[in-house]
Structures are given as structure tokens and as C-alpha cells.
What we know:
Bound molecules: S-adenosylmethionine
Number of strands: 9
Oligomer: single chain
Distance between the termini: 29 Å
Number of helices: 7
Strand order of the largest sheet: 3-2-1-4-5-9-8
CATH topology: Rossmann fold
CATH class: Alpha Beta
Order of helices and strands: HHEHEHEHEHEEEHEE
Amino acid sequence: MSKMFFPSTTMPAADWWKMLWPDPASVLRKLTLKPHMSVVDLCCGDGHFTEALVKLQQAEIFALDMDREMLTLAQGRAGNAVQWIEADARDLPTYLPKPVDVVFIANTFHGVPEQTALARQVFKALKPGGLFVVVNWHVAAPTETRVLGQPRGPRKGLRMSPIEVSKIVEPAGLELIQVTELLPYHYGVIFQKPEV
Length: 196
Ligand SMILES: C[S@@+](CC[C@H](N)C(=O)[O-])C[C@H]1O[C@@H](n2cnc3c(N)ncnc32)[C@H](O)[C@@H]1O
């Protein structure tokens, strides 16, 4: 598969991102992450959530992004507790030594062109009982999701409701188990790979 950056997934500027997500560790706790779990931060960007995974002392942390510049920034924040992967997200299973407990993707799924195909790759990357956690912007116009006085986030046509996400992800064999509100503008959807 040839590599491709997903459209409309450029890393936001750090000033408003830190304002919007002041406590990423508490977001991860709300999304049921527990310290014993091995986790992939898929499309990790500059490491805003990866750093929080380190803080939460996840058993094993992988962080993947295709942008080397982002990985360098992320590595500066989150350090050597993370196994860094420079790759296309769609090749995820190829880069993991063994299946993991959680694949976490934040602020990126809206831009993936073939979302069910990516979910199938996530399925392969998960242990039985493992979780796929998707954090997305709620459906709204950027003018309704302002941070530091400016419209923020992807255009409304790209945003998805939790139900839309589940209709796209469940055909990959993953079951919806939880939808969590992440104020002010986001939600998290958690899917589980069935136990065999
Ligand atoms: C909007 S940023 C989100 C970063 C981080 N998840 C967060 O919420 O803070 C999206 C990231 O996805 C990465 N990305 C886009 N397409 C990708 C692909 N095909 N494979 C891997 N990474 C990709 C971009 O380089 C960017 O760093």
C-alpha cells in the first residue's frame, strides 16, 4: 500500500491544543485505560496524549505517526518509555511485535478515507478482548467549537456522530461498548474485539 497522509489531519498549534486538552491523562482514564494495558497511540502527532500515557504508566506504549517531525517532537515530550514507529497507520499490524490491549486514535479518524479498512487493521492489531478507542470532534461547525476566540476543528461535513462511527467500525468485527462525553467539544467511542 502506498503511504498517504489522511486529509484534514494536520497537527493543531500547541497553544490552543493545550487549552482544549489541559489534562489528557484524565481523558484517558475516562476512556477506561488502566496501567496494566499495552497501548498504541495511533497517529500520535506531537505526543500530547502519548505523554499522558507515560504518566499513566501503561505497561507498554507504542506511538505511530507518518510525520517524522511530529515524532521528533513527541519523543522530546514522552521519551524512551515509548516505542516509536514512523509508518502509515494502515500498516499498523506489521509494526507490532505482538497484539496489544488498546489502540487509541484521537482527532484523526474523521480524515481517514477508508475507515472500515483501517478498523480491520486495528482488529488485527488487538488481542481478543482488546479495545479500539476513537476520540472525535462532535458534529458542529468550527464556528461553534471556538478555542482562544477562533473557530477550530475540521469542517462540519467531515465530522461524525458516535452512531456513524459505530456503523463504520462494527463491520470490521469490533463491538461498540461505550460512548463517553469529552467536554467541551469531543466524545470517545470504545469498541471491543470479541473474546474467542
Ligand atoms: C490532528 S493530528 C492528532 C494528533 C494526536 N492524536 C492528538 O490528538 O493530539 C493527526 C496526526 O495524524 C498523522 N497522520 C495523518 N495521516 C497519517 C497516516 N496515514 N499514517 C500515520 N499518521 C498519519 C499526522 O501526521 C498528524 O500528526
